Amino acid sequence: MPAAKPNSVRVTAPARLHLGFLDLNGGLGRRFGSLGLALEQPAYRLHLTASSRLTVQGPDAARAERYARTLSKQLGWPDGVHITIEQAIPAHSGLGSGTQLALAVGMGIARLFALPAEPARVASMLQRGARSGIGIGTFAQGGFILDGGHREATAEPPPIIARIPFPEAWRVVLIFDRNRQGFSGGDEQRAFTELPLFPEEQAARLCRLVLMQALPSLLEADFSSFGSAVSTIQQAVGDYFAPVQGGRFTSPAVTAVLNELARERVGLGQSSWGPTGFALCENDTDASRLLARLKARWTTTSTLHFAIGNPRNQPGLIESHTDELQRTVG
């Protein structure tokens, strides 16, 4: 029996923290490979209802409308839908806003009209996941995600090769710079073409760090060891991208914060192209103290903003409002 069409649909698509790439060399026939995790906030929250035509309101409305029209054109999906974007992930902040909005729109429309859909397929149709599969994996599964990179000459999203629950007690202090944006689109493509070949021995070192330190530490909830692995990966990848992003990290203000914290902490870095930086924390107390300290220390740097992010071990949420039942994407 076909699924009943709901009267309306609500979608929550959480931000993702991108912790770095593993193999930018590609000598084994696969390139990139990345690791990251889902956060409870920030997140996209969308409300969708059937309509006589496509209308979108709220932040990022133009981009959401473009995604909906693309799906209608390429897949023959209905485009009679009204989408209200009630909450958004900051665009070009390094937190995966493009992929999460694409998945929220695509999976929301699919649920509204009882159409079969998978996050990876929707992402591919909307040209998301061209390098990293972290955003697709966090929407589909939540938690900590490791993807296997791309095969040569394929545009399909990379496979998810590991999903591990992120320790519930751990926290992330996010460091925002309101006056900066990370690369995206054509700028991102040009950046990759301008960079030299990533050293094979460096790629091997990063893969070893993930397999023999980061993943086991995560499973054992060994914060110090996991944070040390993340910091090392961030330093290596950040230094590789430095010629095109202006330094190890994109934002000079965020860089100043991270450099000061690096004297005493591990688990520091920049999410994706930034400018958002992060500091991993072992528990609520540690995160709250660090947040208060950063706000006091950097109060005169008006472009900076700090917030605590909780890990999210659940997938994106798609709620059907016919029977009031809430169902996840899985």
Notes on the structure:
With 330 residues, the chain is of the alpha+beta class. The chain folds into 2 domains: 1-166 and 311-330, 2-Layer Sandwich (Ribosomal Protein S5, domain 2), CATH 3.30.230.10; 167-310, 2-Layer Sandwich (Alpha-Beta Plaits), CATH 3.30.70. 37% of the residues lie in helices and 26% in strands. It has 9 helices and 13 strands. It has helices at 61-75, 97-112, 119-125, 134-141, 185-194, 200-219, 223-245, 252-261, 284-297; strands at residues 8-23, 30-50, 55-57, 81-87, 144-147, 150-151, 160-164, 171-177, 268-270, 277-281, 304-309, 317-320, 326-328. The radius of gyration is 20 Å and the shape is globular. The model is unreliable at 324-330 (pLDDT under 50).
Quick synopsis:
With 330 residues, this protein is α+β, with helices and mostly antiparallel strands.
Q: Helical percent range?
A: 25-40%
Number of individual domains:
2
Strand content: 25-35%
Q: In the CATH scheme, what's the topology name of the largest domain?
A: Ribosomal Protein S5, domain 2
Question: What would you call the structural class?
Answer: alpha+beta
The pLDDT mean sits at 93
Question: For the record, what CATH class of the largest domain applies?
Answer: Alpha Beta
Distance between the termini: 19 Å
- What sequence of helices (H) and strands (E) makes up the elements? EEEHEHHHEEEEHHHHEEHEEE
* E-strand count: 13
Characterize the quaternary organization of these chains.
single chain
Annotated CATH architecture of the largest domain: 2-Layer Sandwich
**Uncertain stretches:** 324-330
Number of helices: 9
Based on CA atoms alone, the radius of gyration comes out at 20 Å
